[in-house]
């Protein structure tokens, strides 16, 4: 098995005549937490959309656990062990916390309408949904409609939905966007807890979250990964400071 969960090999992506991703290369080792940072419009979300199969690459390749995902649909990539969250919350507001998690588990199990499969699937889904609810700290909100949760609770539920299927590779898109300082501190703890032993790739603008969570930081500028290194080295990287931060160290920035 490959040592890397995710590998980008000279990935390019154009929309019409505009090339947005311009030869991005990155290797994310199994079990590590990587943050992708970069200025607005650099192509971070586009990279996530390519890795999760929403868009196809124009050229180059993306490997998941050593196997090319070129041409695969998002649900096939999901069932190959990669799960992503979205910038906009992706929850069903009228369903309860428990029901949202159960749906996510059933979806990831590849739920089929055969009778025996359904019975087993339902039992597994119930247990898994309960376990995830405990992990994300929403047990006391079990029967509350998701639409009535606080914003931070909704984001925690979103993370729960993302991990519910047991994927080994988790992509989180701005998991702390819109949160207060204390809410995002809690979110960092939550993300750390639920990604133990997993590979995490997250796009995040909040540098205290990035520096608090990431083993490595990949800096994307104009569709290229211009640096990928430890937080300490990224902070001291002159190229990064110049290209991305206008001369300021990343620790001081809040894009
Ligand atoms: N489906 C699309 N069609 C055309 N252009 C697109 C599409 N998706 C993204 N783009 C363009 O690609 C560029 C990169 O966008 P992207 O959202 O990936 O950047 P980002 O680094 O995630 O930015 P932000 O930090 O603001 O979220 C932008 O110029 C955007 O307009």
How would you summarize the topology of this molecule?
Blueprint: E1 4-15, E2 18-29, E3 33-37, H1 44-51, E4 59-64, E5 67-68, H2 74-79, E6 82-84, H3 97-109, H4 115-135, H5 151-163, E7 169-173, H6 181-194, E8 199-203, H7 207-213, E9 216-221, E10 224-229, H8 231-235, H9 238-243
Parallel strand pairs: 3-8, 3-9, 6-7, 7-8
Antiparallel strand pairs: 1-2, 1-4, 4-5, 9-10
Helix pairs in contact: 3-4, 3-5, 5-6
Bound molecules: adenosine-5'-triphosphate (ATP).
Short description:
36% of the residues lie in helices and 24% in strands. The protein has 9 helices and 10 strands. Pfam families: ABC_tran, BCA_ABC_TP_C.
Structure description:
InterPro entries: AAA+_ATPase (IPR003593), ABC_AA/LPS_Transport (IPR051120), ABC_transporter-like_ATP-bd (IPR003439), BCA_ABC_TP_C (IPR032823), P-loop_NTPase (IPR027417). Pfam families: ABC_tran, BCA_ABC_TP_C. This is Amino acid/amide ABC transporter ATP-binding protein 1, HAAT family. The structure is a single chain. By secondary structure, the chain is α/β, with parallel strands linked by helices. It folds into 2 domains: 1-81 and 169-178 and 198-255, Rossmann fold (3-Layer(aba) Sandwich); 88-166, no CATH class. Helices cover 36% and strands 24% of the residues. The chain contains 9 helices and 10 strands. It has helices at residues 44-51, 74-79, 97-109, 115-135, 151-163, 181-194, 207-213, 231-235, 238-243, and strands at 4-15, 18-29, 33-37, 59-64, 67-68, 82-84, 169-173, 199-203, 216-221, 224-229. The strands form 2 sheets. It has a 6-stranded mixed β-sheet, sandwiched between helices. A hairpin with a 2-residue loop joins β9 and β10. α3 crosses α4 (115-135), α3 (97-109) packs parallel to α5 (151-163) and α5 (151-163) packs parallel to α6 (181-194). The chain is globular. The N and C termini lie far apart (37 Å). Bound molecules: adenosine-5'-triphosphate.
């Amino acid at each position: 098995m490959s040592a890397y969960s995710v590998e980008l090999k000279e990935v390019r992506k154009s929309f019409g005549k505009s090339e947005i991703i311009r030869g991005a290369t990155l290797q994310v080792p199994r079990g590590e937490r990587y943050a992708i940072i970069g200025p607005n419009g650099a192509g971070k979300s586009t990279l996530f959309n390519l890795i999760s199969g929403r868009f196809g690459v124009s050229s180059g390749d993306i490997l998941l656990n050593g196997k090319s995902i070129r041409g695969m649909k998002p649900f096939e990539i999901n069932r190959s062990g990669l799960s992503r969250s979205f910038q906009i919350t992706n929850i069903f507001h009228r369903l309860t916390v428990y029901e949202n998690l159960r749906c996510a588990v059933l979806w990831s199990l590849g739920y089929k309408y055969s009778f025996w499969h359904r019975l087993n699937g339902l039992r597994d889904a119930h247990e898994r949904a309960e376990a995830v609810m405990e992990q994300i700290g929403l047990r006391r909100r079990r029967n509350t409609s998701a639409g009535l949760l606080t914003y931070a609770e909704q984001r925690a539920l979103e993370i729960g939905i993302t991990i519910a299927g047991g994927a080994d590779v988790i992509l989180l898109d701005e998991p702390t966007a819109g949160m207060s300082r204390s809410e995002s501190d809690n979110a960092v703890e939550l993300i750390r807890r639920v990604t133990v032993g997993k590979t995490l790739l997250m796009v995040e603008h909040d540098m205290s979250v990035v520096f608090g969570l990431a083993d490595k930081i990949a800096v994307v500028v104009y569709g290229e990964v211009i640096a990928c290194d430890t937080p300490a080295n990224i902070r001291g990287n002159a190229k990064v400071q110049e290209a991305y931060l206008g001369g300021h160290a990343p620790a001081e920035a809040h894009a």
